[in-house]
Amino acid sequence: MTSPLTDTITTLSATPSPRLTPQQRLDSMLAQLPTADSSGSQTDSGTVSGTTAVTKGELIEPIQRINAAMQAHGIEFDVSDESSRIVTRVIDRESGDVIRQIPSEEVLAIAERLEEMQGRLISLEV
């Protein structure tokens, strides 16, 4: 089974090319690849190949299964209540203390404030 990328690489390697710089070769390969718009993989609603936006409720069950499997390794995943972002925590298995959280509480707070300010940053006068 071939893909557009392997077909392009095979075609480019089979044809003798004048001395091209690596950037020119990359640009040439990228130009030959089909784009998402031309392949017809987007639907009218703007989603790609039947994928849809996932809601917070749909993530709860998979995250619980992942947490059950990763608990022995001290890793925990959660969905932030404020911003609905995935939060990863490294937990000390003995004490239960959080060693590291990604993104940190500070970054989550900044993201929340930026979402609140969205639309207020630009003031248009008519």
Description:
The protein has 126 residues and is an alpha+beta fold. It is 43% helix and 13% strand. It has five helices and three strands, in the order H-H-H-H-E-E-E-H. Strands 1-2-3 form a three-stranded antiparallel sheet. Strand 2 (86-91) and strand 3 form a beta hairpin. Mean pLDDT is 75; it is low at 38-48.
Mean pLDDT: 75
Distance between the termini: 58 Å
Quote the beta fraction. 5-15%
Helix and strand composition category: alpha+beta
What's the arrangement of strands in the largest beta sheet? 1-2-3
Strands, count: 3
Q: Can you give keywords for this protein?
A:
126 residues, alpha+beta, 3-stranded antiparallel sheet, 5 helices, 43% helix
Outline of this structure?
About 45% of the residues lie in helices and about 15% in strands. It is α+β, with helices and mostly antiparallel strands and about 130 residues long.
Please render the helix and strand layout as text:
Elements (H helix, E strand, L loop, with lengths): L3 H11 L7 H11 L3 H4 L16 H15 L4 E5 L6 E6 L6 E5 L2 H13 L9
Antiparallel strand pairs: 1-2, 2-3
